[in-house]
Amino acid sequence: MLAKDRGGFVDRHDLWTDAQYAASAQMRRVIDEIGLEMIRFAFVDQHGLLRGKTVTRSNVAAAMRSGITAPSSLLLKDTSGKSVFPVFTPDAGLGVRQLAGAGDIVLVPDPTTFRVLPWAERTGWVLCDLRFPDGSEVAFSTRDLLRRQLGRLELAGYRMTVGAELELHVFRSDAAPFAASRVGRPGAPGLPGTVHPTTPGAQLLHEEALDGLDDLVQALYRGLTALDLPLRTLELEFGPSQLELTMDAADAAVTADAVVLCRSAVRQIARRLGYEATFMSRPQGAETASTGWHLHQSLTSAVTGELSFVPPNGDAGPLSVNGKHYLEGLLTHARAAAGFSTPTVNGFKRYQPYSLAPDRVAWGIDNKGAMVRVVGGAGDPATRLENRSGEPSANPYLYIASQLVSGLDGMERKLELRAPTSNPYENDAERLPRSLGEAVDALEADPLFARAFGRDVIDWYAAIKRSEFDRYLTHVSDWEQREYLGMF
Fold it and tell me: Which of 162-166, 190-194, 439-443 has the lowest average pLDDT?
């Protein structure tokens, strides 16, 4: 940021580091050199979705100085856009006076996240943090929630590395005009568009089937790499219309940002080519293979960089002592953490036996049916834990933070690791929640997350998710109509 640009909201409340000021100056140079005309200022809401405003070139400098405002009620809605809390009361029912009356929050740009969007003409993008107009933190900002937990982890002497495997479905979109039936209202979304399959299924890693989608594969490669995302592979998965992309492991906060941008980029690029990409876990027509988000995680020493999960040479076990304690923390809090790793009604329909998705709380050594797969061992710098319970639509900040909080609790309390499973679908291990409602109950009952995130945050999140689940319970489904209308 140039000297003449200082003095706004960002400077007044000391919200940027020196690196962010330097990145802001670089951002201004790129805008001028490339001739960008619009910049999308976006923040990540409670559902992991990007929301924000597009700022014209002449107003970017002011927006960088002082942010832009948006209604705080965006933080109080479920996935249908329904406000879950009484917005027009003195504290919106949450004891937070700044949320009253749908008052403003301030989107504070993080210039280190700036990108030029390769698929949108003369358009840039920057991720924002949230503050109230008085400069105070917004407790319900999920990006900040993760960073606070990472700060706590660093105080304990560690840093977290995360790798992401994201599965998705890609359908051919119907070319029909936007229909009136697709228009919804808060609490009652409109009907989805008509889509058609793109691959036949039972095609795991089949090269020629993937070649049939080469127009999309080429566009995704160009778009994602142009955004400097750490794309590693693009793969054909087992189920019909199912793909997977993987990204190189990186710092946990960096990976969370990358997942947000990657999902949005994939959907926008696909749409321009006549496809509909979805990270919904189990769409209709995909019963043979749901999609998951396999979250790889490990810790390193914040001082020496030593790999914390690698067992010493000569140790026959797959994990160090720290790794064992951390893993037991993941297992101990797995049912509660499912509210973050699997935050939709649909995601729990993925927990099917013999499906490469877990259905109970267990770990295994290189076993892809277990909830947590342990990979590596003595002498292997890639030793890590792979949690296979998440769905690809999960808010990455909350999903990753839930892992960190659970694992750190295991380390702090030195929890003894239970035995591994060799039959993950046949043992008597505790079941993962069978529904979003059951997961929310477990989350509210586990005091760990209230201590880590704050009771107000857990109450806020649980209320939003319970609103979605209650709407689901009262909705008359296609299954019920087929099952009972003619019979009775």
Answer: 190-194
SS3 61: helix
CA 381 to chain centre: 26
Closest CA to 36 of 12, 60, 4: 60
Cα dihedral 273, 278, 283, 284 in deg (nearest 10): -10
- Which amino acid appears at position 17 of this protein? T
C-alpha distances in Å from residue 270, one per residue of 264, 291, 369: 10, 18, 31
CA 43/CA 62 separation, integer angstroms: 18
Q: How far apart are CA 474 and CA 466, in angstroms?
A: 12
Position 115 pLDDT exceeds 90: yes
**DSSP structure string for 412-475:** HTTPPPPPP-S-TTTS-PPBPPSSHHHHHHHHHH-HHHHHHH-HHHHHHHHHHHHHHHHHHHHS
Tokens of 73: 């009620």
Distance from C-alpha of 97 to C-alpha of 274, rounded to nearest angstrom = 45
> CB–CB of 247/228 below 8 Å?
no
Instruction: Give the span between the Cα atoms of 47 and 344, in whole angstroms.
Output: 9
Cβ atoms of 90 and 97 closer than 8 Å: yes
Residue 279 has pLDDT above 70, yes or no: yes
In three-state secondary structure terms, 218 is helix
Q: Are 298 and 335 in contact (CB under 8 A)?
A: no
Name which of 233, 74, 52, 191 is nearest 138 in CA terms: 74
What predicted TM-score, i.e. pTM, was given to this entire model?
0.96
Residue 286 has pLDDT above 80, yes or no: no
Tokens of 370: 């277990």
What is the total residue count of the chain? Answer: 488
E strand map for 14-137 = 38-44, 50-56, 68-71, 104-109, 115-116, 123-131
Q: How far apart are CA 147 and CA 49, in angstroms?
A: 18
Position 7 confidence tier, pLDDT thresholds 50, 70, 90: confident
Binning pLDDT at 50, 70 and 90, where does residue 6 land? low
Compute the half-sphere exposure of residue 151: CA atoms within 13 Å on the CB side of its CA: 8
Taking the CB of residue 85, how many other CB atoms lie within 10 A of it?
A: 19
Cβ–Cβ contacts within 10 Å for residue 304, how many? Answer: 8
Task: Name the token pair of 461.
Answer: 């999140």
d(CA 193, CA 173): 7
Q: What angle, 0 to 180 degrees and rounded to 10, lies between the N-to-C axes of helices 396-412 and 142-155?
A: 30
What is the Cα–Cα distance from 50 to 73, expressed in whole angstroms? 15
Give the tokens for residue 459: 């109450």
**Containing H/E element for 387?**
strand 384-390
Question: Rounded to a whole number, what is the distance in angstroms from the first to the last CA of the chain?
Answer: 70
